[in-house]
Amino acid sequence: SSEDPLNFPVKLADQMMALGGSVGSSDSAPTEAEYTVFNELKTKIDAQLAAWSELQKKDLASLNEQLKKANVPFVAPIPPKGAGAM
User: Fold this and answer.
1) What does the alpha-carbon distance between residue 86 and residue 53 come to, in Å, rounded to a whole number?
2) Closest CA to 36 of 47, 50, 49, 22
């Protein structure tokens, strides 16, 4: 719906896809402003990926240990598509 951004704020992935669409649809090199936006988004995405990695390493391991003690199945993140495929 055209009103989705009003109800659901645009997230980092959407912003990166919009930037990619803008850069990809041009016949010229990316502008300085596009490089600036890319670097800002990359910094934010890198921070989110680091937080996700930290959560998986510490919080998820702790949760699984508690679940194991309670004899409840553990929680595992879904691996990215193509991970481990050769």
Assistant:
1) 23
2) 22
**What is the tens place of the pLDDT at every residue in 36-70?**
999 999 999 999 999 988 888 888 888 888 888 99
3-class secondary structure, 75: coil
In this prediction the pTM is: 0.63
List, as own/partner pairs, every contact residues 23-29 make where C-beta atoms lie below 8 angstroms and the sequence separation is at least 24, other chains included.
none
Q: Of the candidates 49, 46, 50, 27, which has an alpha carbon nearest to the alpha carbon of residue 38?
A: 46
The amino acid occupying position 77 is P
**What is the chain's length?**
86
